[in-house]
Amino acid sequence: MFEKIFKLKENNTTVRKEIVAGIITFLTMSYILIVNPNILSTTGMDKGALFTATALATILATLFMAFFTNLPVAQAPGMGLNTFFAFTVVLTMGYKWEFALTAVFIEGIIFILLTFFNVRELIVKSLPRVLKEAIPVGIGLFITLIGLKSAGIVVGNDATLLAIGDFSTEHVWIALLGLLVTGVLLALNVNGAILIGILASAGFGVILGEVHLPEGSWVSLPPSIAPIFMKFDWADVFTFDMVIVVFTFLFVNLFDTVGTLIGVVSKAGFTDEDGNFPQIKKALFADALGTTFGAMLGTSTITSYVESASGVAAGGRTGLTSVSTAGMFVLALFLAPMFSMIPASATAPALIIVGLFMFTAVAKINFNDMTEAIPAFITLIFMPFTYSIAQGIVFGIISYCLLKIFTGRFKDITVTVYVMTALFLVKLVLDSIHIFQK
Hints:
Blueprint: H1 2-6, H2 15-29, H3 32-40, H4 47-69, E1 75-77, H5 81-90, H6 97-116, H7 119-126, H8 129-151, E2 154-157, E3 161-164, H9 170-187, H10 193-208, H11 240-267, H12 280-297, E4 302-304, H13 308-313, H14 319-332, H15 336-340, H16 344-359, H17 370-385, H18 389-406, H19 415-437
């Protein structure tokens, strides 16, 4: 049966290789079961329901990828996108989490349509390459700041804006230990380094009395998703803020998914000399369906996980690897008490390390051309300093377009960039008028 569905012999692999590869992929990305509920619960969403929704969305989206594309790629709620959901849309812009969930659902529907009409590939080609390279760097810095803040390593300060935290508190040392353990394991190429680092932090927290073990059985039925299932809010759906939020979800997820897919698939040896592969449309469709159903379940945008490369490195070559990963998440569903006891200080190292992974893209940016270096720098620096991924993208695009116009390099600007710049400038003008009227 497996041979017929996944073409194992054709891909020079075996059932054992695929299952082991899937388990390894699970080990490297299972931290999402801890981190995603911790991040999204800051909006007021039920943490137990988020654990179940995260697991179910991951299982469903990964199975979509397995059976639609036969690729060893797992999908789950995206890091960076969940922080935008929680810290920008809800905690900064002031909207309810139902508004953000509605934006994710709309994004999923739009992605399905864009994929069907082959528009997603066209969008990728029309936007400036330098901004595509700067966005993950900015998100990496933003995620790192979130991790440092949640651990108490960095705190707010009226005099200097930011300051070092209080190192006499236990949660700072819980996070630092986890960061050290994770760093050492990554340096030694140990699979599951991020998860082990989180568990080490939690264990240290138990010793310090900051983390309390679950009472009774560690195995239980998953918490109900009823508090967040299909909780959409359509009241503000036709506002400009909704347009900006949906666009940001679309934009970030688009390049995150495409970049991850190309990276993982090329590692498996499936891409051609131009970096393309025949399953790209099916893979993007699986991503779009995952996001749509994930929103219905109650979680943030689904994306392909770069941690899938660990499974590929272990020999995974087909969708059976993804099925194996999904199966491990099914088992994890019944271990909710273990996952829910882990505090934000224990997951902070994961955020910091993921920030590092995303920051490495800075090497791709051309800093010799000021019309590209400045927009890239504005994009990546505005994200952590304004505590908003959206603002980084907005000002990055505006600065790119204006610098190119005033230096006479009109050929570098696409119609899409002109349109977006015009919309963003109109928004800034309207905001300014509103401020002056006050």
